[in-house]
Amino acid sequence: MFRLQGSKVLAVDMTGDAVKAKNGSMVAYDGQMSFRKLSGGGEGLRGMVTRRLTGEQMTVMEVKGHGTCWFADRASEINLVALHGDKLYVEAGNFLAADAGLRTGTEFTGLRGASQGNGLFTTSIEGHGQAAIMSDGPAVVLRVSARYPLTVDPGAYVAHQGNLRQSFQSGVTFRTMLGEGGGEAFQIRFEGDGLVYVQPSERNTIAGDV
Prior knowledge:
single chain; twelve-stranded antiparallel beta sheet; Trp_RNA-bd_attenuator-like_dom; AIM24_sf
């Protein structure tokens, strides 16, 4: 149902079913399609209230019909994630599309810090189906295991899935060492068993402008 055309365009083939997608991300379609804006990130009134309280912003539309619909957003790289009853956590700005049957929500992820300004919450996607997430450059998928925890710069973090514990720790980044830090220095530490998606973005990454 989900397939990539190149690395920056998502094609979704529909036969009367529906998908949730970032509002305004449709770039073309054939066949018969209907579009409907969903409130609260696709979670209805409860989701709308939760997202307003938490500051986690995600505007979503439902696309339903027969044919093919193509999605893209600001020439971002698109990554497909298959869910088999598990849960994916993704920054709201990195969400592109998901099967309509997947449940979306807002999850508390721990104390972050003020330098990113992206709050204490993130978007969750759960169930059986496919999701498409975006990254600034081709995303790298890193494995976390009991023997090998992972520390990620918050500017490079895109999403994670699996049985992972997430914590926020202060520390020194390359940007701080070079005198280019914009505030407190902290990283995201993952422990457990799962996958973490990171982007090779030069903005606010652990390597700064090196």
